[in-house]
């Protein structure tokens, strides 16, 4: 799935596909599934998780974007605040409700 969002007047292409969790891990050295599970358990929205997910989706759509620190610094405010609903839609497309929690729980038991 692809989507274009406007952040501070700039068109940012976003793309989700099955390799997003691996890309996220490679860049941020965090397991995306475990980060989601932790967020669900605490019932708090983790803006850093969504911001990093946003960058990963932007990277999936455009291999030439800046590294995360430089890309985030190119905005005056936190990019996720401009497109949280759109990113949540991509998140839900990649991780359908109910399926993720069950898979994470099974993996954690191994």
Features:
110 residues, mainly alpha, 2 strands
Please provide the count of β strands.
Answer: 2
How would you state the average pLDDT, rounded?
A: 86
Strand order of the largest sheet: 1-2
Q: SSE order in H/E notation?
A: EEHHHHHH
| Unreliable residue runs | none
* Strand percentage: 5-15%
> Helical segment tally?
6
Q: What is the radius of gyration computed over CA atoms, rounded to a whole number of angstroms? A: 14 Å
End-to-end Cα distance: 31 Å
Label the overall shape.
Answer: globular
Main beta-sheet annotation = 2 strands, antiparallel
Helix amount: 55-70%
The SS-based structural class is mainly alpha
Q: Can you give a write-up of this model?
A:
It is a single chain. With 110 residues, this protein is mostly helical. Helix content is 61%, strand content 11%. It is built from six helices and two strands, in the order ββαααααα. It has a two-stranded antiparallel ribbon with strand order 1-2. Strand 1 (2-7) and strand 2 form a beta hairpin. It is globular, with a radius of gyration of 14 Å. The mean pLDDT is 86.
Brief rundown of the structure:
This protein is mainly alpha-helical and 110 residues long.
